[in-house]
Design brief:
This protein has 18 helices and 20 strands. The chain has two domains: about 260 residues, Rossmann fold, CATH 3.40.50; about 160 residues, LarA, C-terminal domain (2-enoyl-CoA Hydratase, Chain A, domain 1), CATH 3.90.226. It has a seven-stranded mixed sheet, with helices on both faces. Strands 18-17-14-13-19 form a five-stranded parallel sheet. With about 475 residues, the chain is of the alpha/beta class. Pfam families: Lar_N. This is LarA-like N-terminal domain-containing protein. It comes from Corynebacterium efficiens (strain DSM 44549 / YS-314 / AJ 12310 / JCM 11189 / NBRC 100395).
Length: about 475
């Protein structure tokens, strides 16, 4: 495989098809904009400040402080006799989830008419009872005892009967929101019926830098968390066109967040959120820095600002080799690829990211279609759009997020990639090769050599802290 030591960015060609991609310059119109045009809108003045906030980037909150804050804030919400849906993360996010979810539940249990705790899987695999119990911080088999007035459910994204259609965002609006990155494509807005029918939706979840939307949290728990393919495919594809390396960790209302905010506006019920920022503690657990409560937009904005300080590590130079030690909460490469996204900005041209994940046995259980396309740069797909346009766009987007920047020449069939990605897991070498990934035996990695090499960066618990170059600050 040819690896470029110094790549310019590609110029995608516009396919003349429905859902066509507009031609853009390379570098693309980045989030800082070109010709005084910005793809990302500023957070509206006063939005973050309208949320109630406890803590800061330098705070270390106790469980008692956080619980008291959540109960005080949620107790002020009129839930009397109402149908409340508490939307929570799945097991691929770390943080004091049980503490927050229990506090939110306790604040409404005696007043709400009905309560559903819905796990926002997106298109991840459903969680089994022991994993859900761990997420909720209760002993196995005791979920019903701790949450007697609630039903706890996985988002049933594969069941059409569980999904409601709220409406359509027309192509002209998609073009406006994406500043012309995507045209001629309507977006069907579909979501879990439980969310659609709730009087109040209360999102409870953390905020992190994110490779598709900039910073996760808030309305992202609706789309893609409780949605299905159309919004997921379109939003992730727009993120891919901007590129993960540009959009990840971007404060402000990115084009992708504009899409999901627009879709979320169609949800009939009240939309509130408890957001929080926590970093992983040595020896397990987490350090809780802040908790916010307000509308989904306000609570997200308040903690996105804080996460930009706690979850971005600024490095003084790029590294030729990075070893991302991916935790077991990522069960396959589809989720464990966050160990690539968060490190790619500080990998040197021609360098290598080794994803160390000895527990991973497959690329993706829920998305076998990724095996039909493998992992490639955005140019590989946009310059062969007729070949790939009917493949799920969310899978194509994931492919480009993992593989990073590069170029593709359709005349020669040569793809030049900025960096190498090597998977050190239980996935065999022939499968890695078929997916356009390198392979390393996780049992034979020379950790002493890695630690002694000043050009190797070893990252523990990779996947949540974004690494960027100080020159980009």
């Amino acid at each position: 495989m040819n690896v470029s030591q110094s790549l310019g960015r590609l110029t995608p060609s516009p396919p003349a098809t429905t859902g066509k991609v507009l031609k853009s310059t390379w570098p693309p119109r980045t989030l800082k904009g070109m010709n005084n045009e910005s793809l990302t809108l500023p957070v509206p003045a006063g939005l973050a400040e309208s949320a109630a906030l406890l803590g800061s980037a330098t705070s270390h909150l106790t469980a008692e402080q956080a619980r008291d804050f959540v109960i005080e804030q949620v107790s002020g919400v009129d839930v009397e006799g109402k149908n409340v849906c508490i939307i929570i993360p799945d097991g691929t996010r770390s943080g004091p989830h049980g503490l927050m979810i229990q506090a939110a539940y306790d604040a409404i249990a005696e007043r709400a008419g009905s309560i559903t705790i819905l796990i926002a899987l997106g298109t991840h695999a459903a969680m089994e009872e022991p994993a859900v119990a761990k997420l909720l911080d209760v002993p196995p088999g005791r979920i019903g005892e701790r949450f007697p007035k609630a039903q706890v459910l996985n988002h049933d994204w594969q069941n059409p009967e569980a999904i409601a259609t709220l409406g359509t965002v027309p192509a002209a609006e998609i073009e406006r929101l994406t500043r012309g990155l995507l045209t001629d494509r309507d977006m069907a807005v579909q979501i879990n019926k439980i969310v659609a029918e709730a009087d109040i939706n209360l999102v409870v979840g953390p905020v992190f830098p994110h490779e598709v939307v900039g910073f996760s949290g808030g309305n992202k728990y609706f789309f893609p968390g409780c949605s299905v393919h159309d919004v997921i495919d379109i939003s992730h594809w727009v993120g891919a066109l901007i590129t993960a390396s540009d959009i990840i960790g971007t404060l402000g209302i990115t084009p992708v967040r504009q899409l999901i905010d627009t879709a979320s506006d169609m949800i009939p019920g009240e939309k509130l959120a408890i957001t929080y920022v926590a970093t992983s503690a040595k020896g397990g657990g987490s350090n809780l820095h802040s908790v916010a409560f307000g509308t989904t937009r306000a609570a997200w904005a308040a903690n996105a600002q804080i996460a930009s300080r706690t979850h971005i590590k600024w490095m003084d130079r790029p590294y030729p080799r990075i070893v991302s030690k991916v935790p077991e909460m990522y069960e396959d490469l589809w989720t464990g690829a966050k160990g690539v996204y968060k490190m790619e900005p500080v990998c040197a041209d021609g360098g290598e990211i080794i994803v160390y994940a000895p527990h991973i046995t497959e690329i993706s259980e829920m998305h076998p279609g990724i095996g039909k396309i493998g992992y490639h740069c955005i140019d590989y797909f946009t310059k062969q759009w007729d070949k790939f346009k009917d493949h799920p766009w969310g899978e194509i987007a994931h492919s480009t997020h993992v593989r990073g920047l590069g170029t593709y020449d359709p005349e020669t069939g040569e793809e030049k990639l900025r960096i190498n990605i090597t998977l050190a897991s239980q996935v065999p070498p022939e499968v890695c090769a078929a997916y356009n990934l390198g392979y390393a035996d996780p049992d034979t990695l020379d950790w002493a050599a890695f630690e002694a090499d000043p050009d190797t960066l070893v990252v523990e618990h990779a996947g949540e802290i974004l690494h960027r170059l100080e020159s980009q600050h």
